[in-house]
Amino acid sequence: MTPDEERLLRRAIELAGEARAAGDPPFGSLLADAAGNVLAEERNTTITGGDISAHPELKLARWAARELDPATAAATTMFTSCQPCGMCTGAIRRSGLGRVVYALAEEQLDALKPGGGWPEVPQEGPALYDEARAAVEGYYT
Ligand SMILES: [Zn+2]
Asked: Closest Cα partner for 25 from 69, 68, 2, 55?
């Protein structure tokens, strides 16, 4: 990691501190272009915003998909105080960001949380294939 990348990652950690000071879970992220210019910053607002999906990584992925063309998005790097969760990883993939650099790994975070992690939710399926297929068939051609 270059000194400039370390500076950007430290800023993400600083944003995590700002989230904590505001009464939210301690997570922060930013999006930088290839030259290291910060394009956008976010912090967790799940508690103050009353929104379980208000993770900074998800907010930045949505911002990038809305505001950046695909080539610009692909040239960005997300610097984030913690490894993105499954929800955010999905959004990051869909947004076309180029790279993620994180500080705390998911396992390191879980070790800091009593009873850490989230319970699995059972899923059932596939079912009603013919009816479900009809709704989708031809859409992607
Ligand atoms: Zn997340």
From this structure: 55
pLDDT-derived band at 116, boundaries 50, 70, 90: low
Spacing, Cα 11 to ligand 1 middle (Å): 18
pLDDT confidence of 118, banded at 50, 70, 90?
confident
Q: How far is the CA of 135 from the centre of ligand 1 (A)?
A: 30
Global pTM exceeds 0.85? yes
57 is catalytic: yes
Taking phi over 0 as left and psi of -120 to 50 as alpha, with beta for the rest, 61 belongs to alpha
